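Q: For a teaching session next week I want to show students how multiple molecules come together into a single three-dimensional assembly. I've collected the sequence lines for a complex. Could you give me the predicted structure tokens for the whole thing so I can convert them for display?
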Amino acid sequence: MAMLINGQPGEQISALDRGLAYGDGIYRTIEIRQGQPRLWAWQYRRLAADAARLKLPVPNDALLLAEICQLATGLEQGVAKIVLTRGVGARGYAMPADSQPTRMVSVTPWAGYPAERARDGVNVRWCETRLASQPLLAGIKHLNRLENVLARSEWTDPAIHEGLMLDTRGLLVEATMSNVYLVTGQQIITPKLDQSGVQGMLRDWLFVHAAQLGYQMEEAEIAPAQLQAADAVFLSNSLIGLWPVASIDGQPLPQAHPCCAQLQALLAAEA
Amino acid sequence: MAMLINGQPGEQISALDRGLAYGDGIYRTIEIRQGQPRLWAWQYRRLAADAARLKLPVPNDALLLAEICQLATGLEQGVAKIVLTRGVGARGYAMPADSQPTRMVSVTPWAGYPAERARDGVNVRWCETRLASQPLLAGIKHLNRLENVLARSEWTDPAIHEGLMLDTRGLLVEATMSNVYLVTGQQIITPKLDQSGVQGMLRDWLFVHAAQLGYQMEEAEIAPAQLQAADAVFLSNSLIGLWPVASIDGQPLPQAHPCCAQLQALLAAEA
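A: Of course. Below is the structure for the complete assembly, covering every listed component.
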């Protein structure tokens, strides 16, 4: 683990930071390959959008990139994490007028997930934990993640790789750490994230690149029964890449559709 | 500021603490008088209940009390804060099997709020920010507080002392940092906190002590229009004590009902 806190080597922050007190901040998790963050432009665009929505100062693109590269020097494969908070504040919820954000950049070596998950697919389950509807926070990768923690605590079986989550209306939102896509013919649908959920960087990437492969990708309201009826279901996040879903609660899903493998190939070709 | 982190003097925590990464923890804010935490038994009971709901180990009552008193020695009036997190964890939402909680206890000198607020009442406003419905987290004083941060950021006018919050159904829940009560005759009602909101320690205290004064106190679903129709509205939290509400969005509220002053007198007599 190598970390820079506001540009200085260190691994500790003030216990008075609003990131701890209120979860008042955002983060991103980024794959490192050959010392560089993958898909940096996509990551930065989402980080900047999330910061703006929470009225956090948007950190400089080149500064963040330089800090990641400094820590990732010589690293073949790893994970970078950026955490950006509203900094140390006096007691009380009000955003301090003079707040100095805290910027944490860390890099850890990491060998990736087992390759068979991307090839053969993963086993998922339905979580009992529902995501609350909060339009003001929906889509943001913020530090208020107790719902995800509760959902992920529902199972310990290592043969289950992810958990699908519904909102309080009973509509599909995401999996605990990934976005979800349903493929039917040449159409890909993914849940709207206007009420809850995290808008992953690869979701943005897929909207652009699925079209290049001739797929029509759209946001939709998705009921649970639609997953078993789809030609294919897959997941995305910046560390897993794209994982086909092989089964949901033990029920196998069709694996013949080429869409996920085509998108994986396109993604593998990206810097 | 004096702070103990897991019993050791210090003011820094690991940047890998799950309290920061996910808001995976709880807290309490406690008034200090003459070197002692006020209403400690009530505070501890709520802390323990919140910890149990998030599957956090419940810290020892006597240990916490001793740490607060150690830091508060000789302090006439102040504020203690306890923050309890699931500790440092590896990447990922899953609760680590071997997690070592982080326990932060801090004490700061503090002169209290202006006395006229408790005597003459406070001006409040309706917040636009709605609280999402999440039964699994409702009532817990956890570290996922972005909704409160957003609500409190809606105003800067120092003549406005608090903001009332509705849930997404349009029902009253709480104010940004306090619980809310409506008095009509000998009846006191306060919002149910089964969908959102924070269950303050004084709310528990009021349920017991309002009855001693002959009031019937109940939880209810409360629509905004009911506040202007009540004989009195008041707020509670452990630092403000009880504040009568003098006006809502500039509309004055009746101040003649004796309930709040009676309860303030009873509260003042508590250790």
